Amino acid sequence: MLTVASWANWTVDIVGGDEDCMAEMSEEAIRSYWKEHREQLRQCETQRSTLTNLLIVVTAALSALIVQQKFTPNVMPLCFFVVLAGAYGAVAVCKYYERASYHLFQARALTRTLVEQGVLGSDEELIRARVEHYRRFPWMHRVRLHRLWVYLHLAIVLYGLSLLFLCIIIA
């Protein structure tokens, strides 16, 4: 007997007559795939954090240089670079969010499969915990974290534009 379980581009071939063995291998394959998606989700968040930190450091260093040069016209390209760095960061953070959402969606689908197979218990306790969390944080749970990261990068864009306008006004 041959059973093929397939998700996206990942395929597991299970050969054998013992259905318990096949179910066990299938569960293990699902768990492995679930773990991979969760690790990819964490990696997206780590990369977003690293990029944001890098852009903040670059912005701070360029700001110091612009101020040291007393907002002369020759630092206008640096101001423009701060604007571009902020815009790039906003787009990249949106992309990281898209990829993280994809991996979270896939992991949740695999979790549902494991619940349906009886490998995991029902999620009643998780639902109770989520309701309690929402009760304790009625407003904050509605704030989307990815929007805060995008707003931070858009603030860098506005900051770069304000530096550029100062250079124009002083020149």
Mean residue pLDDT: 85
Total strands: the figure is 2
Enumerate how many helices there are, as a single number: 4
Taking strands numbered 1, 2, ... along the chain, how are they ordered across the largest sheet?
1-2
Rg from C-alpha positions?
24 Å
* Termini Cα gap: 80 Å
Helix/strand order, N-terminal first: EEHHHH
Assign a percent range to the helix content: over 70%
Oligomer: single chain
Q: Low-confidence runs (pLDDT<50, min 5 residues)?
A: 1-22
Structural class: mainly alpha
Shape: elongated
Strand content: 5-15%
Quick one: biggest sheet? Answer: 2 strands, antiparallel
Short description:
With 171 residues, the chain is mainly alpha-helical. It has four helices and two strands.
Description:
The chain has 171 residues and is mostly helical. It has four helices and two strands; from the N terminus they run E-E-H-H-H-H. The protein has a two-stranded antiparallel ribbon. A hairpin with a 2-residue loop joins strand 1 (2-7) and strand 2. Helix 1 (19-68) packs parallel to helix 4.
